[in-house]
């Protein structure tokens, strides 16, 4: 039971950090969405970078949520 208690403490210690990471990923997704949807045009040649960041943020957020439900 002691090891479970220690593990629970570790989870509580990392939860605020994980929440900040999730907020950052959600912000990346949100700010990129108009470009992904074609509502905003990027003319400086960074569209592939933005798409890649969007896809990575989306997949990482999905994986974090999956891990949280294990």
How are the SSEs ordered, and which strands pair?
Blueprint: H1 2-36, H2 47-68
Helix pairs in contact: 1-2
Structure, described:
This protein has 70 residues and is mainly alpha-helical. The protein is built from 2 helices and no strands. It has helices at 2-36, 47-68. The radius of gyration is 17 Å and the shape is elongated.
Summed up:
By secondary structure, the chain is an all-alpha fold. 81% of the residues lie in helices and 0% in strands. The chain has helices at residues 2-36, 47-68.
Strand residues, percent: under 5%
Distance between the termini: 20 Å
Helix content: over 70%
Largest sheet: none
Low-pLDDT runs of 5+ residues are none
Order of helices and strands: HH
By secondary-structure content and strand pairing, the structural class works out as: mainly alpha
Query: How would you sum up the global shape?
Result: elongated
Number of strand segments: 0
- Count of helical regions: 2
The average pLDDT is: 89
Radius of gyration: 17 Å
Please give a handful of descriptors for the protein shown.
70 residues, mainly alpha, 81% helix
